[in-house]
What we know:
Layout: H1 13-16, H2 25-39, E1 44-48, H3 60-64, E2 70-76, E3 78-84, E4 93-96, E5 99-100, E6 126-132, E7 147-152, E8 162-172, E9 178-189, E10 195-223, E11 234-263, E12 266-278, E13 281-288, E14 295-301, E15 307-313, E16 319-326, E17 328-343, E18 347-363, E19 366-372, E20 396-399, E21 405-408, E22 419-424, E23 428-446, E24 452-473, E25 491-495, E26 510-513, H4 515-527, E27 533-535, E28 541-558, E29 561-580, E30 583-605, E31 608-619, H5 623-626, E32 630-633, E33 638-641, E34 649-663, E35 666-688, E36 703-726, E37 731-745, E38 751-753, E39 760-769, E40 773-782, E41 785-786, E42 794-796, E43 799-811, E44 814-821, E45 827-832, E46 838-843, E47 847-855
Parallel strand pairs: 4-7, 33-36
Antiparallel strand pairs: 1-6, 2-3, 4-5, 6-7, 8-9, 8-47, 9-10, 10-11, 10-46, 11-12, 11-13, 12-17, 13-16, 14-15, 15-20, 16-19, 17-18, 18-23, 19-22, 20-21, 23-24, 24-27, 24-28, 25-26, 28-29, 29-30, 30-31, 31-34, 32-33, 34-35, 35-36, 36-37, 37-38, 37-39, 39-40, 40-43, 41-42, 42-45, 43-44, 44-47, ...
Amino acid sequence: MGASNPVLAEDSQATDNIEVIEVKGMRRSLEQSLNTKRFANSIVDAITAEDIGKFPDKNVGDALQRISGVTVDRQYGEVSGVTIRGTAPEQSRILLNGQSVANTSWYDLGPATRTFNMELLGAEQISSVEVHKTPEASIEEGALGGTVNLQTRKPLDLDANTYMVSAEVARSSMYEENDPGGAFLGSWKDEDERFGILAAYSLEKLTSGRQVLESLSGYYPYFAENEATGEDAAVGAWGIGSQAFKAERERTSAQVTLQFMPTDNVELTLDYFNFEFDNPHVNHNFLTVSARGSEATNVVNNAQGGTESATIQPAYASIIYNLVVRHAVNMKADVLNLTGKYTGDSYTLSGVVGQSTSEGGTQGGASSWWIPATDEGGKIGDPAFPDGQSSVDGGFSYDATGPYQVELTSLDATDASLFKHAQEANYETSVQEHDIAYAQFDAVFELNNDYIDNVASGIKYNSSDFSRQSYNRNPSEILGFVPNGNLSNWTGGVLSDLHSQSPGNTLNAYAYLDENKWWDFISEKYQNGELEEVVNQGNTFAVDENMLALYAQADFSGDNYRGNFGVRYVTTEQKSTGFADSKVFEESIDYDNWLPSLNLAYNLADDLIVRGAASQVMARNNYSDLKPGLNIAANIGSASGGNPDLQPYKSNQADLGIEWYFSSSSLLSSAIFVKEIDNVVFNTESVEFVEKCGPTEADWNECRVTRPRNGGTGSVQGIEFQLQHSWDSGFGVLSNYTYVDSETTRPDGEKEMVPGVSENSFNGSVFFENDHITTRIAYNWRTEWIGVGATQAVLNDAYSQWDASITWHAMDHLNLTLEGVNLTNEVIQSQDTKFDLTQNTIEFGSRYYLSASYQF
């Protein structure tokens, strides 16, 4: 870790007490992870690579879910964020060698959060991961849940002329394409072990995606009660979609590390990392749009007033096939970090300067609508039909009690000739940039008296500049520019065998648009200037922050006890820039936080440790929530926007645990934890004066403004259990269970579940290892949780997943490995919480990896 940080540094006082074990194989990896936990002053869990280039799971996110108190968020199959001890993913910190990494996202429809997207990070170069569940004053602030620190390797720690090469073939069951990958790591140092250089590179490709039976937009009454016919009101989603998402994912990671020790007292390390993730994709969606029908019949409503089933009578564009093509989709980050350390007789001075930059977003693309060919008019909004348009082929019936069931009244969805082009729809392009620069100085003084072992203090300056520019293509809808507008002239065939895990009438086959042929056509439109992009001011903003932190920390020990106490003070200056009424708008605030912490470990016996901790922590808000300005709907007197005046989340927390190390590779432990959280942010409405908000000037004082505001509270109580044991026979088990009671209270007193948090979670792994093979099967389970980033409250059902791997040690230094992720192709099923109707059924498919690695 960053050598300037006395707690996170590899040479820190705490780490000096850790037994040194040569990492060879899974059992030794688990033993070293156990030692990290056992000898740490605070509450820490660790994951250690089995060998160079061989992390226990396919990616770091998959590995983190094996730690008690940690659950993961999957948006497109791979882990993208982590939830630690009952807090939202954006309230956990991800550090690389003890320092922040700039981060952006490729997903253009989501909010701009502070969550480090785990999709960006391959696992080949990671040597170990530490999850700090309780803070220390010397660790960078910003986490309510916990801090994840990713450690990479250094050349002077490895044998001279250490090399590793690997080759891989990846395959997803959803698209059954074979994709190549590979990795390389080389490390050299001179005979005097004064200078070393390490270089590493990895490439991973995977054609994957997801298939979704989904609702579109929020739930509302799209047809009122019909007194003439006696039909009840129809309440549900705007539309239902059968989605097939396909992505050509490519992840690259590069590292160069130079290490120089001119004397025994001086050490200099220069690191450079480059991570890049490309995700060009195409999304097919066959939509049955209830809200565009002419009426609803055969309406059956449930006790909550939601429509479980209905028949929708046809109207213009009540059936839509939608293709979205995104070819320029990526995110990347790089890190340049210089660390220096001087060791005196009874003190250590260290410093670090560095910077990290990131770019991401989704640029360029196409989104086209195709409707039944018998619908009137050649396009939506055809001026030849001033009184509207009608349809005879847009009828369907649906059932929303489980995975969406849909039956078309007359249309054959697999016949491309029955569809025509209606419009090239509006969509948003986003460009995100994030720059971080930091400088840090630390001093550790050894006291070695009866009570205090050492005292550490330090100062850190950190600047963070985040910006998001958004664009709409042609503010008005693009109409009628497609020649030969029948889908049969553009089709690539029929998508079939969709939604394999959801039986019934699930619209599992329909004609689709050839995305390559269509993209060539759209690209020419761009080149000819027929398609233009203009700034979407309501979603264009920047947040610049300057943070200065000071800390003091003391490590203490005595007969059978040890620990640390300290305080971290941080002041933040924040400037938010956006648009209001088409004019640039800026707002600046500043705030400071005092963050005390105490960690204590007491040895009841040589193998039995009791731990306690108490602290105050803070977490800054999402960038999207901090944007200034308002989107004003003048005709109805309402407005919405962000809030630059938001204060950071604050939490008082305490932990108590016991750990029994009944052998060198065995642990039975339990811990309880509580958090009381203030300044929780909710979107709320209030009446304010907003210029030009309302039909007349007299109405401006009564503008209904929806924006994020502080004022809520939160509480978390939980308990963790962990069991790890290895037998001499080669078998071993690693398991944990976490219970979390986590909720927030709105300013009006209403209580809600914290998004992304499950009340119960369990992880279990069984492995066997000998001189010839290493094999493992792992199970992950969590109970229901509120979906993150949904348009309305969405409750995901319980989810479980099986993963497995087997490695054949074919000869010295040569390993052949077969890995499988989500072997049973589990789905995520979600419900709308208000009307108890189906929201989504998401299927990711299984992933398989066959690899060979050689170390010499």
